[in-house]
Write a structure and sequence with these properties.
- The complex is a heterodimer of chains A (about 250) and B (about 150).
- Helix content of chain A is about 40%, strand content about 20%.
- Chain A has about 250 residues and is of the alpha/beta class.
- In chain A, α1 (about 20-30) crosses α7 and α4 runs parallel beside α5 (about 150-170).
- The radius of gyration of chain A is 18 Å and the shape is globular.
- Chain B has one domain (about 15-150): ACP-like (Non-ribosomal Peptide Synthetase Peptidyl Carrier Protein, Chain A, Orthogonal Bundle).
- In chain B, about 60% of the residues lie in helices and about 0% in strands.
- Chain B has helices spanning about 15-45, 65-80, 85-90, 95-105, 105-115, 120-130, 140-150.
- The chains are: A alpha/beta (about 250), B mainly alpha (about 150).
- The interface between A and B is small, with 7 and 8 residues.
Chain lengths: ~250, ~150
Amino acid sequence: MKRHDDEKKGLILGGTCELALCLAPMLIAKEIVPVLTFRSEEGQRRIEEKLAPYAGHYETVRLDLNDTASIEAFFSRTSSSCDFLVDFAQSDYEAFIAGADESRIYSYFMENVAARAVFLKHVTRAMLGRRRGRLVYVSSSAAERPAPGQGFYSAAKLASEALYRNCGLEMAGKGITSVILRVGYVEAGRGRIFLETRPDAVNQVPIGRALKAGEVAETILFLLGPAAEGINATVLTMDGGLCAGKSGLLKA
Amino acid sequence: MACNGPGLADKPQYGIKEKNIHLFERKAYMDIIDTLRELITDIMDVEGETITEETYLVRDLGAESIDLLELSVSINHAFQITVKDDELYLRNFRLYIVEAERLGKEPVSYLAERFPFLATGRIAEILADLEVGPAIKIKDLVSYIVYRQED
């Protein structure tokens, strides 16, 4: 696609997930070109199948936080600049800390924290050159309220939240702001699979249900807009009230 | 051809070729300063005419961390060079002084290895100037840009 000067682009990291694929059409409707990242050919096919009605109105790019060469290749392209970044990327590693595989510990944090920091460095420098940018990090209520076995996931989410928070703290004077959205149970992707095996989990949610993908996507869309610029370098929680009260006491 | 390059006119052993090279290098040097002046006035609220190669980036212009970050990004784009902020802004200068002392190394030559784009004379100047405050000048940025362009 030829980019015009007034065309806005939104980079969606982790572009193959259900939330990303729900968000992309909303961005297109706002005349923002989503650039969805994928890690494998299967992921690219999933994007193309889901967004078939929008062919020609979005872009895809291979970008894997586990592959530094793909990060460098992306940012060496002249068209790598973007106005927005929405970060859904997260790999999973569930293990008790005392029982974890040490090599997995190193690789997990290398991919989900260190590589993310390198990626953010490049993104924010590109945005700085244009003096505008909005960063949205999609975190999880597990950052605040992890289950046993989610220690690494929670630690990676909290570390990533801190990176995004500081981007907004450091760069807001130059037109680049950030927000972290912590979501609770969502009927999408890994969340759907979890809820199918643990339907009772929603009993702890004051609103009595999990979030829908469309609700989360619409919230992200709002956070990308000018009305949300004042929400900077902070965490918003969208979990139906899950983390607001004591666990296990909501319903018998 | 008339030659007004400082120093070379007094050296009869230099021929026309060397004098032309010097003139060319001096022009390229001034072109870099002109570009830096434009970048800095765009980023910071300063008058371009006040910026010379001897201008201190922090002491004279009041550059803050975010300004330096934006300047390094602008230098990267304007000159198409790889910029490492720690090198460009001599961030570890004091750390290396402490290291040299700990290792029993002569500081100027130790620093010259770590900042190969700076002449030893300049390093000695910075060492003498450090107590007053951040010593980085426009000419140090020029030296870095020239060094990276030759990379």
